[in-house]
Design brief:
Layout (H helix, E strand, L loop, with lengths): L9 E6 L22 E7 L3 E2 L5 E2 L8 E4 L5 E5 L2 E7 L3 E5 L4 H5 L1
Antiparallel strand pairs: 1-2, 1-7, 2-5, 3-4, 5-8, 6-7
């Protein structure tokens, strides 16, 4: 992939493909699928700036799995792959898969 560095508080995200079956085992046809609101952070800008000029470091980093709103971001194609560029404020949260999900079950 070509090198791409988002500016300011923007984040480059690759959508994560959703499961093709429901928990009950039903297969979902392509026409009924919604685009997933989960993705992987690929690149992150240096962060936003306060009025004083002080840099506010981003809360996400490349490799993080995130959730974002259905209509968040701008779709772009980089090296033939569809990606999203969005502001960090459009990100709803980071999906943590280590231990916390197992403890909740």
């Amino acid at each position: 992939m070509a090198s791409f560095k988002p500016l300011h508080d923007r984040v480059l995200v690759r959508r994560v493909q959703s499961e093709e079956k429901t928990k009950g085992g039903l297969i979902i046809p392509d026409s009924a699928k919604e685009k997933p609101a989960e993705g992987e952070v690929i690149a992150v800008g240096e962060g936003a700036r306060k009025d004083s000029g002080e840099l506010i470091a981003p809360s996400v980093k490349p490799g993080d799995r995130i959730l974002f709103g259905k209509w968040s971001g701008t779709e772009v194609t980089l090296d033939g792959e569809e990606m999203l560029i969005m502001k960090e404020s459009d990100i709803l949260g980071i999906v943590e898969t280590t231990g916390s999900a197992a403890k909740a079950a």
